[in-house]
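Just curious. Invent one:
>
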Amino acid sequence: MMNKGIVALLACVVLANARIVAAANIDFDQGVDVKGIVESLQARVTPQGRATKDGVANWTVMVYVNAKNNLEKYGLLNVNQMEMVGSTDKVKIAVEMGRMSRYDSSDGGWKGERRYIIQKDNDVNHVSSPVLQEIAKADMGDWRHLVDFVNWARKTAPAQHYMLIVWNHGSGWQKLTASDNWLRGISYDDETGNHMSTPNLASALAAIGKIDIYASDACLMQMAEVGYEIKDYADIIVGSEETEAGDGYTYNTILSPLVAQPAMSALDLAKVTVKSYGDHYAGTNVGATQSAIVSAGLPKLVTLLDGWTQAVMAANETKLVATARSQTQRFYYADNKDLRHFVQLVDAASANSEVKNQGAQLEKFLANDLVVANIAENSGLDHSQGLAIYLPDSSYNSDYSNLAWAKASTWPKFAQWVKGLRN
């Protein structure tokens, strides 16, 4: 967040249970039917919205609030928003919140980590939910601690469906600043100096096991590179191409519709999350982006994007490509650019039939299949279309080659070709 500041084709996409897979008749080879997967996600609801026997809810929303940094006051704000709604027998809200000395002394000024199942109250200045577990000091920048929290949440509040939100600063795959060594990350813990890199986040989700929705309430995390790293572990990925304001998500407007309709599908909940974010910032002076993508479509994106980049390089329309790069929607880091907008600009200016044919397929896939919800509010973000990508203007960061995305695709070759072009 802003002051809160993101090989082979997929052979098998594992959905949450085999009965759903069989019923949907989903093809898991390189011709994966992304539309079919979206339809199956839409259909995955709990009948009649009833909590099941043995206390298993329809949904548990797990929020990992690492407020051990200058976002602490916003962490308290957001947890109080959750208490405006509170858990029910059908929807559980599981939270770990961490605080440290230095930043904020409100609400008793407690420090350490506390775990809650959020209960409803009317006091927006005090977190009154019972503390179910207290930890004197933990490293919330350690991916293994995230796994521990999710395991606790699942045991304490079992459900048929799970949404995990990681709340904190985010930097996509990039460094926070040119001078530091914190590369590719989220969940920065100022007390320990640690954070989770993008591969660390993938390790955490792999250990957790498949969930329905993963969301980053953090800056700059909705990138192809981040999504590809975690694609096997969440059906839908929600995040922002641009930075987020300090208050980030408005949790009461996300959770209220879910509590009112606990049978909603993962796709519907992801759309609610995106819409809630857009509604909160609409008409303000704060630039806001939020989108949801179907993770099973990311291997097909590699195939289509590889075909298009090869056609573009073969056409050798260097001036055209350099001009498109300079005009493409960019974000807080200038090397983060909107993928679909870049493709649109190149395709519109190119006279090469292969570039246009490959580009048309890629544009259609991005718009209709991969990105299932998208908002871009306020000035300067008109061409934010749901997925950012690393497209450097000048120097190429060699660390990029260590990402799963870079190993699976030819994008690093294309990015290095483009960065040398001048318009």
Summary: The domain at 18-295 is CATH 3.40.50.11970 (Rossmann fold).
